Amino acid sequence: MRIMAFLAGVGAAMAAPAPAAVTGSSQWGFSTESSVEIAAGPDAVYALLAQPGRWWEGSHTYSGDAANMTIALHAGGCFCEAIPAKAGPAGTVEHARVVQAMPGQRLRLSGALGPLQGEGAVGTLDFAVTPSAGGAKVVMTYVVGGYIRGGPAAIAPLVDQVLATQLAGLKRAAERPAR
Hints:
Elements: H1 3-8, H2 10-13, E1 20-26, E2 29-38, H3 42-49, H4 52-55, E3 69-71, E4 78-83, E5 91-102, E6 106-110, E7 120-132, E8 135-147, H5 152-174
Antiparallel strand pairs: 1-2, 2-8, 3-4, 4-5, 5-6, 6-7, 7-8
Helix pairs in contact: 3-5
């Protein structure tokens, strides 16, 4: 994903309904948090995390199509994307690596997402899934540290908005039947 494509998608992300916030920022990195209540059980929500093609916004991919993305729900599993030849040169992208997988409860990944991949940064993306009266509550945090040209404070709000869009997509996908 080029940084311009990333920034172009920020306008759509601003309309995301999930409460989101940059929860910390310094010269060394930043953290974000978004949460959403989903009318589906924790196990169903957790299983849906493995299907980013159903909930990730295609404009925030390298191939332009979220259907090319997968997440293997086990330690060492890849949050990867296949890039078919029709989108330009064929290839693959590793967005993150699963470091903790607890079915129905937590998915934690390590990786620098989007334009952060080209920086000297690392991030931890965490999905905490808990039961709630209406189904499940998902709290998504992303903690990033390292060297980021232009500084973490400049990119943190954009990353927060894009991730909030993804969480809103997870909610939409979980609350509508699979096709």
